[in-house]
Structures are given as structure tokens and as C-alpha cells.
Amino acid sequence: FSPAIAIIEQPVSVSVPVGYSFTLRCRAQGRTSLQYQWFCQYQSDCRLIPGATNQDLPIIAEQTQLYTCRVNDLHRNAVFSDWVKVEVHQCVARGLPPRLWQGEPVIVLNPSEQRVEVGQPLQLQCAAMGVPAPSYQWYRNGNLLEQQKRKKLWISHTKVSDSGTYLCCASNSHGEHWTNAVDVHIGEILPLPERLHLFHSVFVLATGKVALLVGNNRYQHHPNLVAPVRDVFELSRLLQHLGFQVVSLLD
């Protein structure tokens, strides 16, 4: 027994810059002649695409949407293709994609360095263009992280052992490309009395330039911020390079 309609070529997801032109393809076999109809979904709104009744659907990328193709025969049998995602990057640096781009992965967002308190969440993010859309794999200190296969790496409760150098590989059928490597520092933040004691000790013993950096991360009526932690870390490194003795406090 064979199905009345069998899809022999599914459309594939893509990740492209805004304004990019490409074609989604669907191929099917049946016992009678077949008819095609494409649909798209943006957020919760799913609609038929008027006039999209061919095997190929030409698209000029405007916004991220989902697409599927319905195939039916003369006996009212119908099947749907896989849903595929057309991810559209609105803000891509000039020169991307490179000339004569064949769809190989191109990194458009690199992860940033993080310093996180033990027990707090860690999020690293990257993004790549590609046709077909790239798959992702994160690594820490060169070791594959089996569960981290999305653009966003998420660890809900960090441990000291989560510290290390992270990077992500984006790959598709045309090749692979790696993000920049970034350092992630997970460590206990000293209780306030111990921080004040350390602060006092540094100033008592200091004979040169001293810098006090305070990054406020948590607010009562505002979501937790990430930038202050990163900024304090970057400023600390810069000031130390300039010969300052640095005391960094958070919250």
C-alpha cells in the first residue's frame, strides 16, 4: 500500500538578510495530477498566499515567518509539507552576505563575555545566516556541550565549573563557521561586610592609583540587567592595564 500523495522533497528553513531573494521548493507524487497551495504564518496569523499555487514559491525576505505547502489530488486527498522557518535578519552589517554567497553559514551575532554570580542564570547568544538555515553547537573549553544546540545557550543555575571559554559552531550542508571565543566567569560575590573589609584594606594599603567600580544589576521594579556586570569587568581590565588598583563591587 502506498499513500495517495507522497511528498518527495520538503521545503527547507533559511536564515537570510532582509531583501534577499530565494525560492522555497516542494515536490510530491500522486496517483492523479496534483495541485499546490502555499500558506504562511506570522505570529498567530496563518493565511493562504494568493496565487502561490506552484511547486516553487519565490520570496523576497521581509520578516521572519513560517511557511507550509498543501498538496491535494483530484480525489480530495491532501497532505501538508513540513512547516519551515524563514528567519530574516533586519540589521546586517554592510558587506554581508559576501559577494557570490552560496548559502554557507555567515556569523551575524557573536556572544559577549560574561561574569555571573554562582546560582544565577547564564545566557550566551549567537546568530548566523545560511541557506539552508544553520544548526548550532556550543562548546566550552573545546568540549562539546551535548544539550546546547540552539542559538541561545542557557544555563538556569550556574556553577563554578561552568566557567570557561565558550564558542559556537554554525553549520549547514555548505560548510561551517565559528563564532568568536568568549570567556565566562562564574564566581561567588563576597557578602557586603567582606566586600567593605576588602575595600578598606585596599585603600589603607594603596600607594598608587585606586579605582572603585560599582555595577548595579538588580532593581526592585526593573528586570535584572546584564550590561553592568559586563561593563564593570571590561572597565576593570582597562583600568588595571592603566596601572590602577581596582575594587569592583556588584549590587
UniProtKB/TrEMBL annotation:
Residues 207-251 form the Caspase family p20 domain. One of its GO terms (molecular function) is cysteine-type endopeptidase activity. SUPFAM superfamilies: Caspase-like, Immunoglobulin. One of its GO terms (biological process) is proteolysis. Keywords: Disulfide bond, Immunoglobulin domain. The keyword ATP-binding does not apply. This is MALT1 protein. It comes from Regulus satrapa. The lineage of its organism: Eukaryota, Metazoa, Chordata, Craniata, Vertebrata. The gene is Malt1_0.
